[in-house]
Amino acid sequence: MSDFFNNPAFGIGVTLVVYVSAQLLYQRTRKIFLNPVAVAVIVLITLLELGHIPYASYRVGGDMILFLLGPAVVALGVPLYEQRSEILKRKLPI
Q1: Percentage of residues in the chain with pLDDT exceeding 90?
Q2: What is the pLDDT of residues 46-55, one digit of tens each?
Q3: If we measure between CA atoms, which residue out of 19, 22, 12 comes closest to residue 67?
Q4: Are the C-beta atoms of residues 1 and 54 closer than 8 Å to each other?
Q5: Contact indicator for 26, 34 with CB cutoff of 8 Å
Q6: Separation of CA 89 from chain center
Q7: Are the CB atoms for 7 and 36 separated by under 8 Å?
Q8: What are 8-35's pLDDT values in tens digits?
Q9: Domain residues of the chain, as ranges?
Q10: Are 6 and 57 in contact (CB under 8 A)?
Q11: How confident is the model at residue 1, as a pLDDT?
Q12: Which H helix or E strand runs over 22?
């Protein structure tokens, strides 16, 4: 069972399932306090604590998601850079 928790797929899978579930919950209720990121963090912490799963085991998969976050930020930055003149024109409303 320990090998299951140390597998990177565990951290990735649990994170994705919890986040998608939290997002569906938010879309159905539209309650601001059910923000998908906040709900996912709370649920993940609760699952790890109740399941007595060490954070280091979960983090093996979480680090893979973190690794992909860098390119995602850059991918979002490129369109912003390309539209910087429009953004500067409308900086007051933004």
Answers
A1: 61
A2: 999 999 999 9
A3: 12
A4: no
A5: yes
A6: 32
A7: no
A8: 888 899 999 999 999 999 999 999 999 9
A9: 2-89
A10: yes
A11: 61
A12: helix 8-29
